[in-house]
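Hey L., structure's done. Input below.
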Amino acid sequence: MRNKLIPQEVKVLAVAKDSIDSRLFTLAITSKKEQKNFSFEHGQFMMFGLPGAGEAAFDVCSASKNNKRFFQLNVRIVGRLTKKLHELKKGGTAWVRGPFGRGFPMSKINNRNLLLIGGGCGSVTLRSLILDHLDGHLNPKNSVQIFYGCLNEKTLQFKNEYTAWKKKIDLNIILDKPSPSWKGEKGLITKLFEVSRLLSEPVAILCGPPVMYKFVIAELKKRNIPDDDIFVSLERRMSCGLGTCQHCAVGSRYVCKDGPVFSLAEIGANHMPGAI
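Output:
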């Protein structure tokens, strides 16, 4: 078994501008054997970095059908490391560890309608599920609905994919501070609960800033969605990825190992960091 504390070299196959401050990296592990054996659970993350600059956690956001050839990570500029990562070009090399953590409960997801709720960069975590649904890897008998809230048009992620998403998915987007030319919904993501008809008896998956969870969970509870059908992806300062360094501890749990995906029934609304 590979030691997950030891980084693996990856080659940058492609870099695409995704939004005003994010880049989508297509990566392949230099060892062809390791890449061929690569797999991940939806919701898991990789530690991605450069020597001398450090590493940080980024969710895998590619379709699982591509696992043997490559995987994708989306990086938004927020500091020194991410600025260095944005300097990477096609053909360059970097280092990864993982994948780490516990992903979404696919046994439940495959048998239910899905309500995917993303705020800001939360769409990154949801994208692998979306792509697998489009590819027919999820139960085609079930429907998928997306509520996505963002600041403005410039910060929207994966915009060039929305046309394809809409063919099989009910995509609902709302912007907090859009330009005057924006024709869609305006305001906070909770407004989408007022103007959109929810799928029946969905499993709700939330990815976004913790403050969003407080208000979205309140809306879900108004609609009698049980706590064990609500799942959140938590963000903490993951460092080792293995529950050893304790940087991501929340009470007795480690977000990197016991999460980052938790059901609301498992942790309770009052125990989410920075949320309620």
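The chain has a mean pLDDT of 92. The first helix runs from residue 32 to 36.

-- N.
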